UniProtKB/TrEMBL annotation:
Coiled coil: none annotated. The keyword Signal does not apply. The keyword Membrane does not apply. Residues 8-268 form the CN hydrolase domain. One of its GO terms (molecular function) is omega-amidase activity. This is CN hydrolase domain-containing protein. GO terms for biological process: asparagine metabolic process; glutamine metabolic process; oxaloacetate metabolic process. PROSITE patterns: CN_HYDROLASE (PS50263), UPF0012 (PS01227). Keywords: Hydrolase. InterPro entries: C-N_Hydrolase (IPR003010), C-N_Hydrolase_sf (IPR036526), Nit1/2_C-N_Hydrolase (IPR045254), UPF0012_CS (IPR001110). GO terms for cellular component: mitochondrion.
Length: 308
């Protein structure tokens, strides 16, 4: 399996976005070392935030998850989480750690851990929508054979951790198909949606870019997807095409299917674009909440939604 990373650098007040690809296979140790090496390389190029793809320490497949899963909490010695923490601290970067199978008790989750520049774990997202699909003759996949779903949205505000003014909503792959999650993130003040993901050769060409751009436009936010690069010999062949789009749905950068690095500057002017897009086309304020309404236990009742 091959992986992409995506990064943000904050140069002279100008965050800079990059994507890498890195090769992953069945050798877990090699996958972890490769990810660490790519994080270091990206950091050398000035990346400030690095995003890894879904399932970067193992092949993507239900039969692999139990074997590659690590216990991060409950005093677990997770070598993958340790690498992410060390890499974040040594390179002084934020890391959105793609995902890896995580064990807690009897359950296994598809989890994304996020680290600050000191190597502290600041958030965890457990994939909330499991990829259970059956398109006869094309693709059948049932994550729920071995995985359990998470039950929380996950937001990371980098400014609360000494970083740039970016509030990210995190999802993992199939989570991108659920507009309600993205709308909830918008409601909770996010201006960027980050989805480590691994679409395949059936759904990738059809929906990967479409969904990212849709979620970005739905929420007037930056959108990022970070995929493993394609490995034709894998059981599950990833589509690749890590990508970042702006709140207008315009592509700021895209990788192809191979191992690679892509860096995209996101200067403060572009961050301001979120605000101006939201003002120019204030559809968030024009929602007809008398006809329909997003409801979530994670939505504060009284707090007005941040829709500047
Ligand atoms: N890893 C995943 O969740 C795959 C999702 C996917 O391919 C899709 O089409 O959705």
């Amino acid at each position: 399996m091959i992986c992409d990373c995506w990064q943000v650098r904050n140069g002279d007040g100008a965050p800079n976005y990059t994507e890498d690809c890195l090769a992953c296979g069945t050798n877990k140790k090699a996958n972890i070392e490769n990810a660490a090496a790519k994080i270091a390389a990206a950091s050398k190029q000035g990346a400030e935030i690095i995003v890894l793809p879904e399932c970067f320490n193992s092949p993507y497949g239900t039969k692999y998850f139990p074997e590659y899963a690590e216990n991060v909490i409950e005093g677990g010695q997770s070598e993958t989480a340790l690498m992410l923490s060390t890499a974040a601290r040594d390179n002084k970067v934020f890391i959105v750690g793609g995902s890896f199978p995580e064990k807690e008790g009897e359950k296994i989750y598809n989890s994304c851990y996020i680290f600050n520049r000191d190597g502290d774990m600041v958030a965890r997202h457990r994939k909330v929508h499991l990829f259970d699909i059956d398109i006869p003759g094309k693709i059948t996949f049932k994550e729920s054979d071995t995985l359990s779903p998470g039950d929380c949205p996950t937001i990371v505000d980098l400014s609360e951790h000494g970083g740039p003014p970016v509030r990210m909503g995190i999802g993992i792959c199939y989570d991108i198909r659920f507009p309600e999650l993205a709308l909830l993130y918008r409601h909770l003040g996010c201006s960027m949606l980050v989805y480590p993901g691994a679409f395949n050769m059936v759904t990738g060409p059809a929906h990967w870019e479409l969904l990212l751009r849709a979620r970005a436009v739905d929420t007037q936010s930056f959108g990022i997807v970070c995929s493993p690069a394609r490995d034709e010999s894998a059981d599950y062949i990833a589509w690749g095409h890590s990508m970042i789009v702006d709140p207008w749905g315009e592509k700021l950068g895209e990788l192809q299917e191979k191992e690679d690095i892509l860096m995209v500057d996101l200067d403060l002017t572009q961050l301001a674009k979120v605000v101006s897009r939201r003002q120019n086309m204030p559809y968030w304020l024009q929602r007809r909440q008398d006809i329909y309404k997003l409801s979530s236990p994670f939505m504060p009742e009284k707090k007005p939604s941040p829709d500047k």
